[in-house]
Design brief:
about 150 residues; mainly alpha; N-utilizing Substance Protein B Homolog, Chain A; globular
C-alpha cells in the first residue's frame, strides 16, 4: 500500500469528524447521537471509523479544556472564532494533546488542509499560525528534534 493510501482512511476520518464536530457545535446534540446518525446516514466507506469516533467523542468530552488550552495562542476569545476554524482547531488540539503517536507535522498539515477546504478564505493561515505556536509548547521535545534534523538556513 502506498504512503498516501495508508493515510487516506485517517484523512477521511478527520473530514467526517470535522462535519460531526461542526454539527455538535451548532446543535449541542450529544456526540453519541451524532455518531449514531453518521454511522446510519453518511458514507463511511474508507474511513478510519475508530479515529472518527475518537475525535468526535474526545472533542465532545474535552471541548472546554481544548478551548482553554488553545486560548493563549489565539488573538481573540475562542467564542469569537469562525465555527469551522474552531472545529478544526479543536481537532488539532485534541490530536496534539491526546494522540502522541501522531507526528505533529501530520496533524498540522491535515488541519491546515481541512481549514483550507472547508473554512473561511484565510482560515487555513490562521489555523496554521495558532497550531504552530501551540505545538512548540505542547510537543516541545518533538519540535526540537525535528529542528535538529533539519536546521533552517539563517
Amino acid at each position: 500500500m502506498s504512503a498516501k493510501g495508508h493515510y487516506e482512511p485517517r484523512r477521511r476520518a478527520r473530514r467526517r469528524a470535522l462535519q460531526a464536530i461542526y454539527q455538535w457545535q451548532m446543535t449541542s446534540q450529544e456526540p453519541d447521537e451524532i455518531l449514531r446518525q453518521f454511522m446510519e446516514i453518511q458514507n463511511m466507506k474508507g474511513v478510519d471509523v475508530e479515529h472518527f469516533e475518537r475525535l468526535l467523542r474526545g472533542v465532545g468530552a474535552h471541548g472546554e479544556t481544548l478551548d482553554q488550552a488553545l486560548q493563549p495562542f489565539l488573538d481573540r476569545p475562542v467564542e469569537q472564532l469562525e465555527v469551522m476554524e474552531r472545529a478544526v482547531l479543536r481537532i488539532g488540539a485534541f490530536e496534539l494533546i491526546h494522540c502522541p503517536e501522531l507526528p505533529f507535522r501530520v496533524v498540522l498539515d491535515e488541519c491546515v488542509d481541512l481549514a483550507h477546504r472547508f473554512g473561511s478564505e484565510q482560515g487555513h493561515a490562521y489555523v496554521n499560525a495558532v497550531l504552530d505556536k501551540a505545538v512548540r509548547e505542547w510537543r516541545a521535545s518533538e519540535t526540537q528534534e525535528a529542528q535538529a534534523r533539519c536546521p533552517s538556513s539563517t
